[in-house]
Design brief:
CATH architecture of chain A: 3-Layer(aba) Sandwich
Distance between the termini of chain B: 19 Å
Structural class of chain B: alpha/beta
Shape of chain B: globular
Helix content of chain A: 25-40%
Number of helices of chain B: 10
Largest sheet of chain B: 8 strands, mixed
CATH topology of the largest domain in chain B: Rossmann fold
Distance between the termini of chain A: 27 Å
Order of helices and strands of chain A: HEHEHEEHEHHEHHE
Number of domains of chain B: 2
Helix content of chain B: 25-40%
Oligomer: heterodimer
CATH superfamily of chain A: Vaccinia Virus protein VP39
Number of strands of chain B: 12
Largest interface: A-B, 21 and 21 residues
CATH class of the largest domain in chain B: Alpha Beta
Largest sheet of chain A: 7 strands, mixed
Shape of chain A: globular
Order of helices and strands of chain B: EEEEEEEEHEHEHHHHHHEHEH
Radius of gyration of chain A: 16 Å
Strand order of the largest sheet of chain B: 1-4-8-5-9-10-11-12
Number of helices of chain A: 8
Strand order of the largest sheet of chain A: 3-2-1-4-5-7-6
Number of strands of chain A: 7
Strand content of chain B: 5-15%
Structural class of chain A: alpha/beta
Strand content of chain A: 15-25%
CATH architecture of the largest domain in chain B: 3-Layer(aba) Sandwich
CATH superfamily of the largest domain in chain B: Alpha/Beta hydrolase fold, catalytic domain
CATH topology of chain A: Rossmann fold
Radius of gyration of chain B: 20 Å
Chain lengths: ~200, ~375
């Protein structure tokens, strides 16, 4: 399965879904059309916002780093934060906010512990530039990268329960290797969490 | 390709029957002038209502004959523009209380044979929306594809969304606020005092006495105009530029900004009615949809069915982005279909009049999705 299939598996049909950092609305579009979800996106990039509006999605222009106080506790069934937490100034606070707003949340992270990343750093002595992390250290938006181990440690530190997890290889698919040794062989990890 | 709508003409309609106002008074008939652009489709589903702001009128786009300047929202309304007249039938009325042909303080009161003047009742945003609904009936429009406006016009679009939830598919609420702040009311009060204290105001009966409180209205507009521009826009447009090479040690307009404000005040005071200006500021001050719901905006929004787009501008300090966010956050809490755009623009409150690229893209995406 790919990420969107797993997300659909993890959430009930017709749920209310908030996607923080929704990009051009790819996930929300699918959930709204195929899963009957009531959706709302939060995004900061103007072009992406307009793409969401064009697709008829509800989207709020908001900088997540400036806070999410405008969303009430448990006001959404599901809060999604996909490939976003690593670009935020305060990932820990964001994680706490995500679990406050959603009854359950789905967070996806790029895994810095992936074997090519490790070898890249070990052999070249330079910050890794890979398929999933294509930018150089000085112009990447990813200011808070972590490994699968780091993320799970943060969850337990924040007393956040991991309900489900799923690991994907570089093709965005689940694989045996990624399942057996995720911190080494998964490029992306997805968690269903709640507090 | 975006182009001008070309030559346009105003129309006039008498909406017959008793028209009750929120203040308790009523009119027997109301006359409205309006303009339309584009063509209404067979099932009347492509109509967009444009609501004007404090000093606006029904002339939103195109030109009259040899007129130099086009209508006030020509940058956004026309063939291929954000509000595309190739696709939509656009209607813009002059609101009651106005001074460009619709029933207002400078109209004759048929009961007395005199100008209404200061006896014209205080109108509210709700009264306007009710009159616009009567206009919709007369045009055969059961449901607007969209109702939209900037500033006070945005407040009307918002009022439409909860007052007539079945008659509006989309609402565009641009550079607006859910109510005026103390600072907003303060600026309005300075404007009113300027007019009321002009010796030629004559208690509002200046038309009967063939006088006109030009100085008062000019001053009111000068104050208002400052609040429409951003500090940044004023600095880059005028800075401390002098009209002459050196200081004159006197009280004539020496700085460019002084002469600009005086000019704007002069032009405005020659084309606007002082009683209408007073009335418009009052309409703004009174707007407060939450007041009927124990101050809870989210409850005021309960009935909304439309899809809403709220737009604010980064340098607007009259109705700053935070004020738009109050509307947005209440709509999110009320679980309504809302999108919010914050546009980076240097033009302050007036930004809503400019065809900024992101703004145009957002608006047309919203109207056409």
């Amino acid at each position: 399965m790919n990420t969107i299939e797993v997300i659909k598996n993890w959430i009930d049909k017709e749920s209310e879904v908030l996607d923080l950092g929704c990009g051009d609305g790819e996930i929300l579009n699918i959930l709204s059309k195929e899963w009957g979800s009531t959706v709302l996106g939060v995004e900061i990039n103007q072009d992406d916002i307009n793409k969401c509006i064009q697709s008829g999605l509800n989207v709020i222009h908001q900088n997540i780093d400036e806070g999410l106080e405008n969303f009430s506790d448990n006001s959404f069934d599901i809060v999604i934060m996909s490939q976003t937490i690593q670009v935020l100034k305060e990932p820990k606070k964001a994680l706490q906010e995500v679990t406050r707003i959603g009854n359950e949340s789905i967070v996806t992270i790029p895994n810095f512990g992936y074997w090519t990343t490790r070898i890249n750093l070990l052999l070249s002595g330079k910050m890794p530039v890979t398929g999933t992390l294509p930018s150089s250290w000085h112009d990447t938006d990813n200011i808070h990268l972590c490994t699968i181990k780091d993320f799970e440690n943060l969850c337990s530190e924040c007393e956040i329960d991991v309900i489900e997890k799923c690991f994907f290889n570089k093709f965005g698919k689940e694989s045996v290797l990624a399942k057996v040794a995720p911190n080494l062989f998964a490029t992306t990890a997805m968690y269903k969490i709640s507090k | 390709m975006s182009d001008s709508i070309g030559k346009v003409q105003a129309q006039k309609v008498t909406l017959e029957g008793k028209f009750e106002l929120e203040c308790g008074q009523s009119f027997n008939d109301i006359e409205l002038v309006y303009e339309t652009y584009g063509a209404l489709n067979a099932d009347a589903t492509n109509a967009i209502l444009i609501c004007h702001a404090l000093s606006g009128n029904h002339h939103a786009a195109g030109k009259y004959g040899n007129e130099e300047k086009p209508g006030w929202w020509d940058s956004l309304i026309g063939p291929g523009k954000a509000v595309d007249t190739n696709k939509f039938f656009v209607v813009c009325p002059n609101n009651i209380g106005g001074c460009h042909g619709s029933l207002g303080p400078s109209s004759i009161n048929h009961d007395t044979g005199d100008y209404y003047g200061p006896d014209f009742p205080i109108i509210t945003v709700r009264d306007w929306v009710n009159s616009q609904a009567k206009l919709s009936d007369s045009l055969g429009i059961e449901k607007w594809h969209a109702v939209m406006g900037g500033s006070l016009g945005g407040m009307q679009a918002l009022e439409w969304s909860y007052l007539f939830p079945k008659r509006i598919k989309k609402a565009g609420i641009i550079a607006a606020a859910p109510k005026l702040s103390a600072q907003n009311i303060a600026f309005n009060e300075v404007a009113r005092q300027a007019i009321l204290n002009d010796p030629d105001f004559e208690g509002g009966r200046y038309l009967d006495k063939s006088k006109y409180p030009k100085q008062g209205l000019k001053l009111a507009r000068m104050v208002g105009h400052i609040t429409y521009l951003s500090e940044e826009a004023m600095r880059s447009k005028f800075g401390r530029e002098l009209k002459k090479e050196k200081l004159n040690f006197g009280y004539d307009a020496e700085f460019e900004i002084e002469s600009y404000l005086r000019y704007q005040g002069d032009v405005f005071s020659e084309s606007f009615d002082a009683n209408t200006y007073l009335l418009m500021t009052k309409i703004l001050d009174y707007f407060d949809p939450a007041s009927n719901f124990e101050g809870k905006l989210v409850n005021a929004f309960e009935s909304i069915e439309a899809q809403l787009l709220v737009v604010s501008f980064s340098t607007d300090w009259r109705f700053a982005p935070e004020r738009s966010k109050e509307i947005v956050n209440a709509l999110i809490k009320a679980k309504k279909n809302v999108s919010y755009l914050e546009i980076d623009s240097p033009h302050g409150h007036d930004s809503f009049l400019f065809a900024n690229e992101d703004y145009v893209k957002g608006l047309s995406a919203f109207l056409e999705n």
